[in-house]
Amino acid sequence: MAAIPLSTNFEQEETQRVSKRYNEKVALVTGAASGIGKATAMRLASEGARLVLADINLDALTAVAEELSGIETECVRFDATDADSCRAMVTNAEQRFGRLDLLCNIAGIAGAWRLEAMTQKQWELMLSINLTSVFVITQAALPLLLESRGNVVNMASASGLQGQPYNSAYCAVKAGVIGFTKSVAAEFGSRGLRANAVCPGGVLTPIYDNYSFPEDADQALVNRMLPLPGVDLSTPEEIAGLVAYVGSDEARFINGSTLSIDGGQTAL
Ligand SMILES: NC(=O)c1ccc[n+]([C@@H]2O[C@H](COP(=O)([O-])OP(=O)(O)OC[C@H]3O[C@@H](n4cnc5c(N)ncnc54)[C@H](O)[C@@H]3O)[C@@H](O)[C@H]2O)c1
After folding, report:
1. Res 109: pLDDT
2. Backbone phi, then psi, for 30, in 5-degree steps?
């Protein structure tokens, strides 16, 4: 039987539909200087968004903004460990664009230690950057997001869904991000605000490259933190594609969800 050719019109309409998802919209992306945050900023810009790019690394952030020449961007240096800095960053975004449709909380750190060796300082830094800042930034952005009937996409992790050896601080805060996200969805969903958590497995970014396990780590246990055998790690662009979908109006009915994108890591 002869193959039925795809209509060219369909292809054009599909391309237009996707590329217009963020026209007239403003997105704030934390962690935008690198990795998943940078890829998300690039993807949202390609779909028409105006962007607030936020990170502690202003030089790298400025370089991202230069790559996005022609797109309306505002670069804001902030430190996720400092609540006042987080709030000032949101105020800066409001002053520049006067609205906010999508908040992507992506900035984060990782670190692996044996529980016996982990210091309280390491635990508190993990908590502060990866979870407390998500609360502070989301709270500060709430009035704008409620006004626009916008949404929040929080970068959680497969580590928030499973127990992982040598990773107790990271697992705890990412599980916290998931719980926080669901609570925001439950509390504000009927007022038109959505919140979802994206849960990647291994993604090829500086965090992953710089990650190391304690000496003499049990390899059989470490394998729990990998995609299924034969499956390559993810690229930041693949994660950005999911963020762009979840944050768009196409995903209107997705609220309070944890979206795994981990090569089957948490399927076992
Ligand atoms: N790469 C992975 O395998 C992976 C997997 C699951 C989840 N994640 C999550 O994805 C998010 C992004 O990580 P990535 O892989 O793109 O790593 P990355 O290192 O490329 O990006 C992290 C960004 O966060 C910024 N940042 C760090 N500390 C900060 C602070 N105190 N204040 C403001 N900004 C700060 C960094 O400057 C950097 O630009 C993180 O929340 C991470 O936990 C990553």
Report:
1. 98
2. -90, 155
Asked if 168 and 115 touch (Cβ cutoff 8 Å), the reply is yes
Please give the average pLDDT of every successive group of 10 residues along the chain, which has 268 residues. Answer: 50 61 97 98 98 98 96 98 98 98 98 96 98 99 98 98 96 98 98 98 95 91 86 97 98 98 93
Domains and CATH numbers, the chain: 22-267 (3.40.50.720)
- Cα 207 to averaged position of ligand 1 atoms, centre (Å): 6
| Residue tagged 């999508």 (tokens) | 102
Q: Angle at Cα 129 formed by Cα 81 and Cα 126, nearest 5°?
A: 115
Q: At what angle do helices 236-246 and 35-46 cross, to 10 degrees?
A: 50
Q: What is the CA radius of gyration of the chain?
A: 19
Ligand 1 centre distance from Cα of residue 9 (Å): 40
CB 173 within 8 A of CB 130: yes
